[in-house]
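// run 5 | inverse folding | seed 20
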């Protein structure tokens, strides 16, 4: 698998996640790494939240909404970075994941899709889980990032980023291919299901 660059979405106040960021830097010291500064959703005003027209559960708290928007904007900024710098085969990671591969990442086959999730196992495939949940590790081609960013820029209403990707997958205007890479080579720490970025921004408690 060829990777031109790694982007780590990292919230600066998440000091206890630095060990995971440092672990990724050490494991992939031969690949250029860019730290994408996470947007702290709790700093958004209620007016700003209202302007984003977030679609969520009717009883979602303001804290929850701010968290989802902060996480969404962080991932969108990663896409902007890829497109602006015309990068290809870019791996976007959250700041609390670690590499679980049993060989170097270069030894794994290149995904066929423009947008590939590197966090699903064959057990997931057997279970026929069709939707995408979580965004801990995504590999983008330039065309994939560009098409997804164009789709996001034209939305009148938004969802949580992983849910929005499911809607993108169904979009008739979609040009890029998107799918799961059924060899799990990245994971969260044991017992951890969602990223610190989402947790701190109010998505989950």
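// decoded
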């Amino acid at each position: 698998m060829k990777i031109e660059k790694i982007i780590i979405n990292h919230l600066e106040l998440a000091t206890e996640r630095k060990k995971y960021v440092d672990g990724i830097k050490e494991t992939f010291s031969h690949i250029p790494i860019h730290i994408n500064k996470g947007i702290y959703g709790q700093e958004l005003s209620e007016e700003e939240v209202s302007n984003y027209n977030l679609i969520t559960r009717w009883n979602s708290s303001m804290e929850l909404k701010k968290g989802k928007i902060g996480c969404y904007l962080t991932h969108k900024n990663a896409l902007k970075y890829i497109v602006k710098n015309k990068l290809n085969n870019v791996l976007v990671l959250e700041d609390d994941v670690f590499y679980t591969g049993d060989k170097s990442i270069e030894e794994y086959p290149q995904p066929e899709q423009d947008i590939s999730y590197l966090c699903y196992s064959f057990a997931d495939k057997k279970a026929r889980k069709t939707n995408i949940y979580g965004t801990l590790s995504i590999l983008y081609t330039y065309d994939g990032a560009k098409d997804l960013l164009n789709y996001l820029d034209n939305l009148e209403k938004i969802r949580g980023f992983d849910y929005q990707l499911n809607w993108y997958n169904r979009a008739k205007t979609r040009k890029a291919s998107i799918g799961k890479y059924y060899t799990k080579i990245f994971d969260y720490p044991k017992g951890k299901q969602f990223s610190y970025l989402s947790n701190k921004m109010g998505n989950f408690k």
